[in-house]
Structure formats: structure tokens, C-alpha cells
Amino acid sequence: MDTEEFRLYGKQMVDFMADYMHNIRNHRVLPQISPGYVRDLVPEQAPEEGEPWEEVFKDIQRVVLPGVVHWNSPRFHSYFPAGNSFPAICAEMLSGVFCNIGFSWSASPASTDLEMVMLDWLGKMVQLPQEFLFSSNGPGGGVVQSSASESTLMALLSAREKAISYVQSIKKDLSQGIILEKMVYYSSIEAHCSVEKAGLLSGLTCRLLPTDAAFSLQGDILQAAIDEDRTQGKIPFFVVGTLGTTNSCAFDNIEKLGEVCKKENLWFHIDAAYAGAAFICPEFRYLLNGVEYADSFLLCPAKWLLTNHDCCAMWVKDRENILKPFSIMHAYLKEDLEVETLNYRHWGIPCGRKFRSLKMWFVFRLFGVRGLQTYIRKHVRLAHEFENLARNDNRFEVLFPVVLGVVCFRLKVRVQRYRMKKCFVLLTSEER
Fold it and tell me: Hey, how many other C-beta atoms are within 10 angstroms of the C-beta on 397?
């Protein structure tokens, strides 16, 4: 494909994408196919000679679309919102054209500098404390990770290294291996599964703590767990507080959790992957009260800020906690500006990085803060509208107060007695 063919076929692809988005409502959300269906539609080996574009383009309809779950559809109600918009898609295309692998400032100055500015923009939109922002000229700052899972893992690993250094500074006879065996971290039982997975990947023990009736983790529960573990010789070092849990959009009491973490000298990480977007609206910012206690904080623009996956914003109060343990310098990575510049390869698991900040830049500029606030408020308004419909229908019950865009409801179950071997049969309203 040469330049002129790219012009022609690229426009054809854009037309296809525009038509797809425009008609997304007409697609069945869940495909009706069986696992492995693609093997029946494509050859067993790659072609020896290149095929015409027309054949490849035709197979989007024949091979790909039948197996696509249409997350963009207004009829899609599973998992979590799929943030997407035409500005974000345009930025994704541009990122593909530049093909920058932004592992260092010199490798992609625009990528690095724009990412730093976008993390400051978003941090100011949600009114993060100044310590988290590059513009404060302090030790804090932000990074765009691929996902909340990666962000939580990096926070956990950073906290682990910091805790090991601290313990060895006061107990010089303890080896790293012994310390690792004793280390334990905490989260709510309602926290996202990535919090547990981070423990599996790092070889650390995760303790899931019970919540109150509102599914919120409270400070006294955390304190009791820490006290119990310390008496058993364990080393508490890390706590995850969740704002907007996946199950019910519950909010941990981060003010009380933060107070405990400060008192016990534990790293406090806040996961606001979904709900964090709402904090750009002043009326929801109170939900973030207590973030001043956090050592790291994340929210995912890909969840609720019209910025397609993958895009997760993560901030830390002291970037040295990430840079020191994870900076590896080989000769082929050294450069004259190493000391003066920020190199994002030290901030995450991969060395190479996509130009993700372009998506944030396009979305923030084309929608503006007010446009994004309007988008969030509309979703919240629709959630409350649905809540009222469910409350006024005697077939349903709403289980928890609706705060943002999640409504937890269920079909009521009534018990009817039947004289069949003295058994009770549960019938739903629809079954009757």
C-alpha cells in the first residue's frame, strides 16, 4: 500500500467506522457464534503473496463483525461503560501514524511533555492536591498507564520496595526474603479483582476486609486488622481504598482509612477507576475528600471520560518511590539529558509506551470541561430516572442509594406454598 492507496483506503476505512458508529444501535450487542468460529472462516496459514485490499476489507464484515461485542451500543449494559468518542478515535489514528515508542524524553519529546501536561490538566479538573501535580515543582507527578490493574500493581510494587528499605533500616539482620514472607496488604472485599491479582503477581499476601451495610470499608476495621497482624509478627505496608466499587459503586471511607495509614506509616492507594471521572463536577467532588492522605491515586478516562481504552491516569506524591526501585540503565538507554528529563519507562512495567496522551488532549479540548461535566451529569440523571422507575414498580426493589451512574436493583421474589412433599417453591413475578 503506497501513499496514494493509503489516502483512498484510509478514507474508506473512516467511512466504515463512521457508518458503524452511526448505526451501532442496529447491531445485536452479543454475537451469536461459538468459540473458535474464526478458524472455520480463514485459512490455516498466512498467504504466501499479499492479497488485495478489497479482499481484506470485505472480511471485516465476513470474519470480524460477527464476533464483535458492541460495547459502544446504547443497548450494552454489561461490565462497565466503554468510554469512546470520535476525537479519541482520531487521536488513536494519529498515534498509530507517529508510531512513537515513548520510553524516554529523547525518544518522543512531544509524547513525554504532553503526557505531563495532560496529567496536570486532569489532576486540576478533579482538584487533586498540589503535591500530585508536576506544576507544583515538587516530587509528585502523573503517568498514563494502560489500565487500573497496571496502576495498582505499580503502586503495590513501589510500596513494597519502600517498606523493605524502611524495615531493613531498623532491622538490619532481616533479609529481603524474610521480610517478603511477613508482608501483608489490605483492601475491601468489594475491591476490584486486580487488587488480589497484584498480590499473586508480586508474591505478596492480600487480606480482604469486611465492609459495613453500605459495602464501605471503615477505618476501625482496617485498624483492627493491622493490630492483629502486627501481633503475629507480620508487616503491614499497603492499603487500597476504592471509590466506586465494581459490584455496587460503593465508596470506602477514605478519610478514616487515610488517617489509619498515616498513623501506621502505610502506603495508601486510592482506586477511583470508574467514579473518579465524576469528580470533575463540583457537586461530586466531596466523594474525594481524604485524597490528601493518599500516596497514589488513579482514575480511568477510558471508563467515563469519552477516551477509549487503553488509558488510565495515575498520580503519585513522590515519584522517587517509583523511579528508584525500577530504574534500570543499560548503555543503549543512556542519553545526555537523562538527569534533566523525565523518562516514563521507569514509571511502568513495559519499556515502550504508546502516545496515549493524544487521546486526552483531543477529548479535553474538543469537549471542554463543561462538555465533559454535561456528559457525566446526564448519565447520573438517567441513573436516578431509572431508579425512580424501579422504585415505583412493585416487581423490583432498589438495594442501595444511587450516587452516580450505577443502579443496584433486583427482581422481587415471593414465596408461595405448595403441598408437594412439603417443599417450598420460589417463583419470581415473571414465572407466575
Answer: 14
Could you give the CA distance from residue 412 to residue 296 in angstroms, rounded to a whole number?
Answer: 41
State the pairing for strand pair 312-316/296-299: antiparallel
pTM: 0.88
| Cβ atoms of 109 and 351 closer than 8 Å | no
With contact defined as beta carbons under 8 Å apart, do 269 and 296 qualify?
yes
Q: What is the pLDDT of residues 138-181, one digit of tens each?
A: 999 999 998 989 999 999 999 999 999 999 998 888 888 999 99
Closest CA to 352 of 117, 108, 151, 148: 108
Dist. CA 417–CA 423, nearest whole Å: 8
Give per-residue burial for 225-239: e unless 16+ CB within 10 Å, then b: bbeebeeeebbbbbb
Lookup: cell for 426:
420460589
pLDDT band at 365 (very low <50, low <70, confident <90, very high): very high
Close Cβ partners of 250 (under 8 Å, ≥ 6 residues apart): 188, 190, 211, 214, 215, 216, 242, 244, 400
Residue 241 carries which DSSP code? E
The phi and psi torsions of 259 (rounded to 5 degrees) equal: -60, -40
- List, in sequence order, every residue forming a beta bridge with 185; answer none if it has no partner: 206, 238
Q: How far apart are CA 300 and CA 305, in angstroms?
A: 8
Q: Backbone phi, then psi, for 196, in 5-degree steps? A: -70, -40
